[in-house]
Design goal:
Elements (H helix, E strand, L loop, with lengths): L1 H14 L30 H17 L5 H6 L6 H8 L14 E6 L11 E8 L8 E9 L6 E10 L22 E2 L21 H4 L2 H8 L2 E2 L17 H8 L9 E9 L6 E2 L5 E14 L5 E2 L5 H5 L6 E17 L6 E5 L5 E9 L1
Antiparallel strand pairs: 1-2, 2-3, 3-4, 5-12, 6-7, 7-9, 8-9, 9-11, 10-11, 11-12, 11-13
């Protein structure tokens, strides 16, 4: 009897109200389909996120003007803030181009997926003026505590569109070069978005984030002993070729000993799920370069930012320690080797410099 009752119930759900056993009329109209669940609440509303991004872009464009240091400190946090503070002492340093603001796309997670703090969202934007522009900047914003101010913590670049067929007179802007970045030629897949447009976090975020420490180990060595081959990273322009460049820098001197040490720093940025099943991971590093020689000396060029932080004067140095801020974005597959899609590995932002004059 219970089974028969269940069959009757199914009939009602599929065809509305069936006639009664006594031949009575239908009892009413067909049932309405169940309402869709409401879109999940996001960690920040889009209008507020737009305001945060636009305010940051404005302060970033003004930071070299009077009061600019206070302004950038109000909208940025480390490691990005440390980069701007260091640039204040280097008038000709790169990395001070205006933040691209064309066509911003907001990647905001749902509160249910990110209940704790610090919280985050990211903005993908590109340069204005060229119809063909496949390189995009991604800026990460964090909120340290409930009610706290949202501040930019890191920025990176990548290709997120396929290689275009350029018409005569068209060209790609390559705006990333003004920020010291290089990008992989192949584009990354779109970030997966769920209900209400919420950006989806990768299911194995903690494991994917291990790529940060592996890359730090990969680029920590004394030249020319860096090994381009890696069990963790696919060979390419931003992996093996970077190691080769570190082994033989432009300022190479025969007796100068050079070593590089990378340390993961800054907040743990979100790991985003991509439409092709891979994960997008951005990591912040402090790279410390040690230059030391006995009979050989190093001399940084007159317009080299490192020379400015060392005090200028184009002095010869027997020993120098240079600290940089470096940002690297990885594409991590569920299986196999990770790849770097964008980084300022070759032209990282300067943080500090000290040395012993020859």
């Amino acid at each position: 009897m219970g089974f028969a009752g269940g069959v009757a119930a199914c009939a009602v759900l599929l065809s509305g109200c069936a006639p009664s056993a006594e031949g009575g009329k239908a009892g009413g109209p067909a049932s309405s389909p169940p309402a869709s669940p409401p879109a999940p609440a996001l960690v920040i509303g889009k209008e507020q996120a737009e305001k945060v991004f636009n305010t940051f872009a404005w302060e970033q464009s003004q930071f070299r003007k009077p009061g600019g240091q206070e302004g950038i400190a109000s909208v940025a946090t480390d490691p990005l803030l440390a980069e701007y503070r260091a640039r204040a002492g280097v008038p000709f340093d790169r990395g001070t181009a205006p933040t691209p603001q064309t066509g911003p796309a907001y990647l905001i997670p749902a509160e249910r997926d990110w209940p704790g703090y610090p919280r985050w969202f990211a903005v993908v934007s590109r340069n204005y003026g060229q119809r063909v522009e496949r390189a995009a900047m991604m800026t990460y914003f964090t909120q340290a505590e409930p009610g706290g101010q949202w501040k930019a913590a890191a920025m990176t670049w990548m290709h997120d569109k396929p290689d275009p067929q350029l018409a005569e007179g068209e060209f790609e802007d390559r705006g990333y070069e003004r920020f010291g970045f290089a990008v992989r030629d192949k584009e990354v897949a779109a970030v997966t978005q769920g209900a209400g447009g919420a950006a989806a976090a990768a299911p194995a975020a903690e494991e994917d984030r291990r790529v940060c420490g592996r890359y730090a180990d990969y680029l920590s060595f004394t030249a020319p002993n860096g090994d381009p081959e890696s069990e963790h990273f696919a060979p390419g322009e931003l992996t093996a070729d970077v190691v080769r460049d570190y082994n033989h820098p432009e300022q190479e001197s025969g007796g100068m000993r050079r070593s590089y040490q990378l340390e993961v720093t800054g907040p743990a940025l979100p790991v985003l799920r991509l439409a092709d099943g891979k994960s997008l991971v951005t990591c912040s590093f402090v790279r410390t370069d040690h230059w030391q020689g006995s009979s050989w000396k190093v001399r940084f060029g007159k317009d080299d930012p490192r020379n400015a932080l060392l005090g200028g004067g184009s002095t010869y140095w027997r020993k120098a320690t240079i600290r940089h801020s470096m940002t690297v974005t990885f594409e991590v597959p569920p299986q196999g080797k990770a790849d770097v899609v964008g980084c300022n590995c070759r032209k990282p932002a300067l943080l500090s410099a000290e040395g012993t004059a020859a």
